[in-house]
């Protein structure tokens, strides 16, 4: 698990501050784009000389929720971070293979890192809103980071739409000027989901989004994931088997055995992975016999 500093959240996997990329794009006046298909082909990853993933291939269908499960340290978060090119931010990190976004490799020649980050948003384990920034401005933070311009009316509409999609609007509509840090942990996480949605991603990566939350807040995030399903492609890392079973339509079981790099043992429809897994290691893991 890689820590992202709370003081400098990469809210959406967006472009760095000051970037003027995509200034012509006005997400506020466009409708949410269709969810995109993501496909990993033979993805391997390293930290220095330590190989942590071995030729992982996975199809993540458009508009579906794909859950990545497996014991600690088997490379789930690393795999997730190769999908929107966050892995390469770590100085010692390297990867090989392809990540196809609607058939085009996000690592292909001429492909920009900022495009991958904007199209493929991310929500982290620990809610990381800008604590002193208002709820309203938190939602729009990604627009500022990508240099996107919008009128006041467009911003108002975007804030309402994204907070509604994130399942938070009714709770905060009367206090949009209050700081994001004043919300509960679960509300902060839904604010982060709203913030990620504001730059119109077609895929949303979620790295254990409920692990810092209480059961009620967890349930609320799960409802939000279910509501977003169909609107945006979701890939979620979770240690919670019940959660994987509740929110996902397909599941991939990762394992790194005895010092070998992590890989996928088995993937398929969630009912099949939990109900009749083909591999005995999957069966043992989903039954809680290890990990
Ligand atoms: N920044 C880093 N530098 C060096 N090694 C790292 C780094 N991040 C992760 N690793 C190593 O890569 C391997 C895979 O870690 P990763 O966090 O992807 O696994 P995971 O399955 O997501 O684990 P968890 O469920 O505990 O988050 C581990 O051996 C870990 O120690």
Automatic annotation (TrEMBL):
Every ABC transporter domain range: 38-286
GO function terms (MF aspect): ATP binding
InterPro entries linked: AAA+_ATPase (IPR003593), ABC_transporter-like_ATP-bd (IPR003439), ABC_transporter-like_CS (IPR017871), P-loop_NTPase (IPR027417), PstB-like (IPR005670)
ATP-binding is among the record's keywords: yes
Translocase keyword on record: yes
Gene3D superfamilies reported for this sequence: P-loop containing nucleotide triphosphate hydrolases
Record keywords: ATP-binding, Nucleotide-binding, Translocase, Transport
Pfam families linked: ABC_tran (PF00005)
Lineage top rank: taxon: Bacteria
Database matches in SMART domains: AAA (SM00382)
Name of the featured protein: Phosphate ABC transporter ATP-binding protein
Species lineage: Bacteria, Bacillati, Actinomycetota, Actinomycetes, Kitasatosporales
């Amino acid at each position: 698990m890689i820590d992202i500093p709370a003081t400098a959240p990469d809210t959406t996997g967006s472009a760095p501050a000051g970037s003027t990329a995509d200034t012509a794009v006005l997400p506020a006046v466009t409708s949410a784009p269709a969810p995109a298909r993501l496909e990993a082909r033979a993805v391997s990853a390293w930290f220095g000389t330590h190989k942590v993933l071995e030729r992982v291939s996975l199809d993540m269908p458009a508009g579906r929720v794909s859950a990545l499960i497996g014991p600690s340290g088997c490379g789930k978060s690393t795999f997730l971070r190769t999908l929107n090119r966050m892995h390469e931010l770590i100085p010692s990190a390297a990867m090989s293979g392809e990540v196809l976004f609607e058939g085009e490799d996000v690592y292909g020649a001429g492909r920009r890192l900022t495009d991958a980050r904007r199209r493929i948003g991310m929500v982290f384990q620990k809610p990381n809103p800008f604590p002193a920034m208002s709820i309203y401005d938190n939602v729009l933070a990604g627009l500022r980071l990508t240099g996107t311009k919008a009128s006041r009316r467009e911003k108002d509409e975007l804030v309402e739409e994204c907070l509604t999609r994130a399942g938070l609007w009714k709770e905060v509509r009367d206090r949009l000027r209050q700081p994001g840090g004043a919300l509960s942990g679960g509300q902060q996480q839904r604010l982060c989901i709203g913030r990620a949605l504001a730059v119109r991603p077609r895929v949303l990566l979620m790295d254990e989004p409920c692990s810092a939350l209480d059961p009620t807040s967890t349930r609320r995030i799960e409802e939000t994931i279910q509501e977003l399903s169909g609107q945006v492609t979701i890939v979620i890392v979770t240690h919670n088997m019940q959660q994987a079973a509740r929110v996902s339509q397909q599941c991939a079981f990762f394992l790194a055995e005895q010092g070998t790099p992590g890989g996928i043992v088995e993937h398929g429809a969630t009912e099949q992975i939990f109900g009749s897994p083909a591999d005995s290691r999957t069966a043992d893991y989903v039954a809680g016999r290890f990990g």
